[in-house]
Fold:
Amino acid sequence: MHTNNDHTVHKFIIADDHPLFRSALRQSIQRTFPNALLYEAQDMESLQRCVSEHRDCDLLLLDLHMPGARGFSGLIFLNGQYPGLPVMVVSANEKPEVMCRAVDYGACGFLPKSAPVEMIDEALCQALAGEIWLPEGIADQCAAASSELAVADVVASLTPQQFRVATMLSEGLLNKQIAYEMNVTEATVKAHLTALFRKLDVSCRTQAVLALNSLDLEPPGQFTPPPKQTPVHA
Structure:
C-alpha cells in the first residue's frame, strides 16, 4: 500500500447505491490520495447533479447497477453528455465479457469490487494518468473481442453476392470454384474479393480467412432425435 506523493488535489465522484461500499472505496482513495476531494451519488439522478456541479472531476467511479439506469445505459449516457469525463466502472459483475464491453462503451477501465487495496491503487493511478486499466489478462481478451466486433460490422455491410464469396472463401474454395458455383466470371469474383479485402482491411486471402473464421462457433454435438412414440389407440 502506498501514498501518492503528488500534491495535486484530485477530485473523485463515487457513484454506488450501497453506502458501505462507497465508504470502503472512499477510504481506499484517501489512503492513496490524502488530499483528494470526494463526492458521492447513490442513483443516476443524484449523479447527474453531482457531475454537473463538478465538471472538473478527475475520475468518476461508476457502479454498473445504479438505480435509474439499466445495464450499460448509465455509462453510455454519461459519455455522451460529458465526453471529457474519465469513467471507471466498478462492479461485482466480473465476467471478462462485461469488462470488455465496458471499455467498448467508453470506460477508462473496470475495477472489480473484489479488488484488493493494491489493485485499487494501481487502477486509480493508471486512470488518472490517462491509461485504460483492466485486471491482468483481460486486455488480451478484449482485443480479441474488439477484432471480432470489427469483423462482424464488415459482414453486416456486405452485399448478398459479397457474402456468398466470403462464405465460400472461408470454406477454402478457389476463385474458379467460386465463379463456377455462382455462375459468374473469375474477374467478377476477384472484384468481390478486392472489395472484401478492403472492408476487412487485409491484403491477402489468408488474412481474410483468419478474420472471417473469428466468427466461427464450435459445431454442436451429435443430435439424437427423440424416440418415436407409438400412438395410443382408444
Summary: The first strand starts at residue 11 and ends at 15. The mean pLDDT is 87.
